[in-house]
Amino acid sequence: MSARDSPGLLFPALPLASSGLMLLLSSLWLVGAGPSLALAPELLPDPWQAHRLLTHALGHTALPGLLLSLLLLPALGWRQEHRLGTLRFLHASALLALATGLLAALLAGLRVLGTAGGCGYVPVHLAMLAGQSGRPPRAPGALPAWLRPWLLLALTPLLSSEPPFLQLLCGLLAGLAYAAGAFRWLELSEQRLQALQAGGLCRALAGCWPLRLLPAPSAVSELPVTHPVGARPPSPGPLLLPAPPSLWLHGKGSAPGPPGLGAVPSPPSREGSSEVGLPLWAALDEQILQEAIQASLLEESAQGPGSPLWLPKSSVSSLRLQQLERMGFPTEQAVVALAATGRVEGAVSLLVGGQVGTEALVADGRGSVHPNGPGPP
Length: 377
Description:
Elements: E1 14-15, H1 16-30, H2 34-37, H3 52-55, H4 63-84, H5 86-109, H6 122-131, H7 147-159, H8 165-179, H9 190-197, H10 200-205, E2 211-212, H11 218-221, E3 254-255, E4 264-265, H12 280-301, E5 309-312, H13 318-326, H14 331-341, H15 344-352, E6 360-363, E7 369-370
Parallel strand pairs: 1-2, 5-6
Antiparallel strand pairs: 3-4, 6-7
Helix pairs in contact: 1-4, 4-5, 4-6, 5-6, 5-8, 6-7, 6-8, 7-8, 13-14, 14-15
Protein name: Rhomboid domain-containing protein 3 isoform X2
Main location: membrane
Membrane topology: Multi-pass membrane protein
């Protein structure tokens, strides 16, 4: 079942990692596994107890600490997972949990009081917040990003005695080091991330409900855009041209498309797009390209249900097309989905949902077409 834009679902799919963490933390607390996961520096010399450096974040021994961790996962974790993607979110959370455990063990080795026997997920929340402390506030009047982890550090001891304050401070320090780039050599490379997301398991989880794997938006936004000849303006224009109402949004969320394509998603708003940071000329180019593609699709669909749809490969980004081909999607359907959405995420949603037919004929720009045909007139 498709997790996105499914009208029969009661609610949209939830982020896989942060929602799964909520279930895991609750289950471990119910079975009483907190003490066996807590950070105990005196047990760390035993190789069989080294897991506590990482699993201390999953254990809870006090109900207030568990409730606080569960409350912060929807409030912070869901938004962070949407921004990073599921795989990057899991990798960053595990890395910061391990860094927090190592710092706490180091302080315990230096005989610093208040660092033994700590557990709880709040230090990871602090580290993730501190890791994005350099981001500007999204709305006027919002708290600065650098102030949020310090505010959470001050409020947590008032709400729960678990974990200890020094362990919370270790989480904050680990997040600040992450923001400074100290762990950059341990981060997932773009090639490794793409290979993992193209795997069969990740592709299956990306279409599941009620929990869904979220792709990393950075992997899409960094791909260059292929512009048709003559589409780039000679100089950046100060005004973004709106799409004609006849081409977009005949209903809520979709517009009629040609045969075999299904509903064409409406263009995402610039505020929620992953390409907000593009230069003005790039945003204008992409908007002009999308309007031209939509006009071409609607013009072809007006010729009748029996006439094939011709699409040149040059109308879509070659890198994005290659990315979809590596995922196992047919070239013709991938070109149609990219032409309709302009982004890999939207194209994958159409292809996984079976909303792309096989009636389109794709030309490679040199007179040959796929499937076999005489070429577009």
